[in-house]
Design a protein that fits this description.
Layout (H helix, E strand, L loop, with lengths): L11 E3 L2 E2 H18 L5 H13 L7 H7 L11 H16 L2 H12 L8 H8 L3 H12 L1 H9 L6 H6 L1 H18 L7 H26 L2 H7 L8 H12 L6 H16 L8 E5 L6 H16 L9 E5 L2 H15 L10 E4 L4 H8 L5 H9 L5 E5 H5 L7 H4 L9 E5 L9 H14 L3 E6 L12 E2 L4 H7 L3 E11 L1 H11 L6 E4 L3 H15 L3 E3 L15 E6 L5 H16 L4 E5 L13 E5 L3 H8 L11 E8 L14 H13 L2 E3 L3 H13 L6 H12 L16 E6 L4 H19 L5 H15 L3 E5 L19 E3 L8 E2 L3 E2 L13
Parallel strand pairs: 3-8, 3-9, 4-6, 4-7, 5-6, 7-8, 10-16, 11-14, 11-15, 12-13, 13-14, 15-16, 18-20
Antiparallel strand pairs: 1-2, 10-17, 18-19, 21-22
Length: 816
């Protein structure tokens, strides 16, 4: 421990940072975050300040100070539990509120990990020898510590130290009473949600303030605070430049009509907190949504245009990338994008951000700013958004406080899992109520349950829009089950030879077999398309260009392949694409005809949105079929809930052929039928109960993507970049092993960013698959990633169809 003159000691929170300064700054920053959230309760604001000032009290022990100065780490240097007891005591002493005192304990005790349960914490306090030794250490320097904390307006610390046993007894009593009473309290539902969001707001404010103050992230926030924020004028300028001279096709006329109607509606004040935009696929919802959000910001937060956020969320990474590029062109027409104005955030985006800012910001500080959404416009995934509202994970909850006073868009809302609809509906409704957010739900097929939240539709007479559209005719071919060979026969019956065509099936195994059978039958007419032969591809009317797409392809190739297909379609190539669900919502491709294996109706509608999307021919055709495997098992039931499949099939058999103009009524009937079955979903009830009980361990079960027993496999495709990233990754791991304690966070941040680059070459493979690289082909470091080097690549990976699974193990679900 470093000494000053006399007996006074200097205490540090981090190397070179005085503990009293860190406690003061985190306390003030916590207070600021909660005040900015506009929660309207000064008691909560005070709790935020107190937990910030108390969150590292346990670092005053000699054990922690010695460890910080290079001594050996031990359990006695752990500071969170003692800090939690102190913070809880502070809150109760100031506010005499047992509930808030217990919440303070929970937030501080978990501030270096995910939120847990009160019962777990209770067990840790009782008869804990470590805490007893730590408080003895505090007593040795109690006078010095007391003087330091008085500078922070924290008094009577000696009372806490001298009466520590009674403090422990009181906290235990409060927590035990809370655990016992809470499940049986008779409260309104909104009160439970308010309590839950208070915990999230306090925890989020604390962990974000703590991490930023410990680093230098705050100074970079200030560095970019002068940047101009987006406005609706930018969208007007973009539309004039890109659409003013566009051909007045039927679809463009419809898009223009919708845009002008929406603009007019947004000229008047809107009091609703949940808004909807319901419009057919391909009618320009992305621009409509972006304009809506910016206009709402201008109307609702005229004095907070810099601090209020626009959060645009989508189900899949590929559409996040697509929409981000659109917004980038709107906001930065003549300059480079800046992530403090427009941020793209998903688990693969960090590498791009690091390249954008180059050496302007150290990587560890950049990560803090990205993960807490310190930007004006955030384009992100449903996972990043919803796991930050429902859950317990530290890394997700860090950004929660930044959702206050924001406009949140959920585009393609129908793609959320059915079992979570009630939970998500309630979460969004109460988020809008308590954090002053406005929610915009966008889809071509709005589930009826999301209309039941006092929502307000922004598209006038949207039913008439559907009636005006006749781009596609839906044809049900469900009377007869089809094998793969029969499906290909059917395709050649319906395909004219010069049309572009899309075939969407439900499993990777089937998609590969269909692709191979088509290639075989097309024979010399076929040119197989991958990004590798991009340079050699030229338009040839005598040739058919066969493409394949699924998550069986490494992400980097998948991205390049989509862009290549898009270009070929625009240039009039005869393209046949075989795909799984990877082609659905948001992928901006346009085919003359499509075939879709039976799926939930909303998925079928999404495929229809890739058929004659821009109304470039009079009428596209979408055929719905039923594919079975060699044993007669229906492919669709391997992937989807049988309730959804059976209901979709029944509706499609009732009306075997219908036009797009009739779709709205069929969709409403479909959602009306399945809404009655949602109450059967017990998982939602369990999670709602967990929120009422503040049972955060149970909330770990909330997951938009089902956890599957898979292993990541890195594929070194013929791409020099793959090898380069792999070498950077290995080097970064070695740097962590050799780094000094005060440098480890910088190296971990670097590793995390390189890991996201590595993901572009990773496929997740079932653990039980027979064609896994053996242990000798591991990356050589214990990180759980298998490695397929270029030398053995052909045994594991095919350039056209991706990973080589044993034929019987190809049945895997497909979520992107």
């Amino acid at each position: 421990m470093k000494k000053l003159s006399g007996s006074l000691c200097k205490f540090y929170s981090h190397p070179g940072v005085l503990l009293k300064d860190h406690l003061r700054d985190v306390g003030l920053l916590c207070r600021k975050y909660v005040e900015n959230a506009g929660i309207g309760d000064q008691k909560i604001v005070k709790v935020a300040e107190l937990i910030g000032k108390g969150h590292d009290f346990g670092k005053y022990t000699e054990y922690f100070q010695k460890t910080l100065n290079g001594g050996k780490k031990s359990s006695l240097s752990n500071h969170a539990l003692l800090s939690a007891i102190f913070s809880s005591w502070l809150v109760y002493r100031e506010l005499k509120d047992a509930f808030l005192s217990a919440i303070a304990f929970l937030c501080v005790s978990c501030h270096h990990r995910s939120l847990s349960n009160f019962s777990e914490i209770k067990n840790k306090i009782r008869n804990n020898e470590r805490i007893i030794n730590q408080i003895r250490s505090i007593r040795k320097n109690a006078s010095n510590i007391s003087k330091e904390l008085e500078e922070l307006q924290i008094y009577e610390v000696m009372d806490f130290v001298d009466n520590f046993d009674s403090v422990i007894d009181k906290i235990l009593k409060e927590i035990c009473e809370l655990i016992a009473k809470r499940p049986f309290e008779e409260k309104e539902e909104e009160e439970y949600w308010r309590d839950y969001y208070i915990v999230l707001l306090l925890f989020s404010s604390l962990i974000d303030a703590d991490k930023k103050d410990a680093g230098d992230a705050l100074k970079y926030e200030d560095m970019y605070s002068h940047l101009v924020r987006p406005s609706t004028k930018l969208i007007e300028d973009y539309r004039k430049k890109n659409f003013e001279k566009a051909n007045l096709t039927k679809i463009n006329q419809l898009r223009e009509k919708m845009y002008e109607s929406l603009k007019k509606k947004l000229e008047s004040p809107i009091s609703h907190k949940i808004l909807t935009i319901t419009a057919p696929t391909g009618t320009g919802k992305t621009i409509l949504g972006f304009y809506t959000a910016l206009r709402l910001k201008e109307m609702l937060f005229p004095d907070r245009m810099n601090s209020s956020k626009l959060i645009y969320s989508l189900p899949y990474i590929n559409i996040v990338e697509q929409n981000y590029l659109t917004f980038e062109r709107i906001i930065f027409p003549t300059s480079d994008a800046n992530p403090f104005v427009l941020l793209k955030h998903h688990h693969l985006s960090l590498g791009t951000l690091a390249n954008q800012l180059k050496d302007e910001i150290p990587l560890d500080d950049l990560l803090l700013l990205v993960e807490s959404w310190d930007s004006n416009v955030i384009v992100t995934t449903f996972i990043q958004l919803l796991h930050s509202i429902i859950g317990c994970e530290n890394s997700f909850l860090k950004k929660f406080h930044n959702m206050a006073n924001s406009i949140i868009i959920l585009d393609e809302i129908q793609s959320l899992p059915l079992k979570y609809w009630i939970l998500i509906k309630n979460a969004l409704f109460y988020l809008s109520k308590y954090l002053n957010t406005t929610i915009v739900l966008m889809t071509a097929t709005m589930p009826v349950i999301f209309k039941d939240v006092n929502s307000y539709e922004l598209i006038n007479d949207y039913e008439l829009l559907y009636n005006a559209l006749n781009r596609t005719v839906f044809k049900s071919e469900l009377e007869k089950e089809m094998s793969i060979s029969e499906l290909v026969d059917f395709f050649f019956e319906k395909w004219s030879g010069d049309k572009s065509a899309l075939i969407v099936v439900n499993t990777i195994a089937t998609s590969i077999k269909v692709y191979e059978e088509l290639a075989k039958r097309l024979d010399e007419k076929v040119i197989k398309v991958t990004s590798k032969n991009r340079g050699a591809i030229q338009r040839d009317l005598s040739k058919v260009f066969l493409c394949y797409l699924s998550t069986n392809i490494v992400p980097q190739e998948r991205k390049e392949r989509i862009n290549l297909i898009k270009t070929m379609l625009k240039e009039g190539f005869t393209v046949i694409l075989v795909s799984t669900q990877a082609i659905e919502a948001g992928v901006d491709l346009d085919f003359d005809m499509a075939i879709r294996d039976i799926a939930p109706l909303d998925s079928i509608v999404q495929v229809a949105g890739r058929c004659n999307r821009n109304w470039h021919i009079d009428r596209g055709e979408l055929f719905i079929v039923k594919i079975v495997d060699e044993k007669g098992n229906q492919d669709s039931l391997k992937i989807y809930d049988d309730i959804l499949i059976n209901r979709s099939e029944a509706l499609l058999k009732e009306k075997r052929e219908f036009n797009e103009s009739e779709l709205r009524n069929i969709i409403d009937k479909y959602y009306g039928d399945i809404a009655n079955r949602i109450n059967l979903e017990s998982k939602t009830e369990e999670l709602l109960q967990a929120i009422k009980d503040l049972n955060f361990d149970e909330l770990r079960d909330f997951s938009l993507i089902e956890k599957e027993p898979k292993i990541p496999v890195f594929i070194e495709i013929d791409d020099n970049n793959a090898r380069k990233i792999l070498e950077e990754f290995k080097e970064s791991i070695n740097e962590i092993k050799d780094s000094e304690r005060n440098e480890i966070f910088k190296h971990k941040a670097k590793l995390k960013i390189i890991r996201t680059k590595l993901e572009n070459y990773i496929i997740n493979v079932w653990k039980i698959d027979k064609n896994l690289p053996d242990i000798g082909h591991d990356l050589g470091i214990s990180i759980g990633i298998k490695y397929v080097s270029r030398g053995i690549r052909d045994a594991y990976y095919n350039d056209e169809t991706g990973y080589l699974f044993p034929i019987e193990k190809n049945e895997v679900s497909e979520f992107w």
